[in-house]
Hints:
By secondary structure, the chain is an alpha/beta fold. 36% of the residues lie in helices and 17% in strands. The radius of gyration is 14 Å and the shape is globular. The relative contact order is 0.21. It binds ligand CA2. Ligand CA2 is lined by residues 12-13, 15-16, 18-20, 24, 76, 78-79, 81, 102-104, 106, 113.
Amino acid sequence: MAQTLYVLNGPNLNLLGTREPEKYGRATLADVEKLCRATADRFGVDIVFRQSNIEGELVTWIQEAHAKKAAGLILNPAGYTTTSIAILDALLILQVPVIEIHITNIHQRESFRQHSYVSKAAKAVICGFGIEGYALAISGLAALIGAKAKS
Ligand code: CA2
């Protein structure tokens, strides 16, 4: 059976592509999902792709990833990056690699965006590549879990 990766997106990312295109680009979250599915297909892995504006829902989905034996998890925690000990605690339960992703380079932005609780639980952090970072995160996770690209 194919391995499954969870790709979770935090608050306001449902609005991607509708404002601040100079920072976030013009792609929508539906475009990001398409990119993730196309990349996952190349490696023969399945993905669960979701977004929530609710912290507890993200916690529940991280617990679900654990219960369903996901092979890895990619999280753009968005505004919860700098505040959520609850999300950190849920991630620390996982025994599979977690990749933290940000569309923008958070280190080039306001100082309040630069501390991440999520990083404490992340195997790797990708930021500043725009939505292409999601494809990089899936390729990187695929390498970590031994999923090979289809020829
Ligand atoms: O760069 C990222 O991916 C962020 O995680 C995005 C968050 C921000 O709070 C983080 O500091 C960095 C903001 C998500 C808001 O998403 C929208 C983007 C464009 C249009 C509407 C919402």
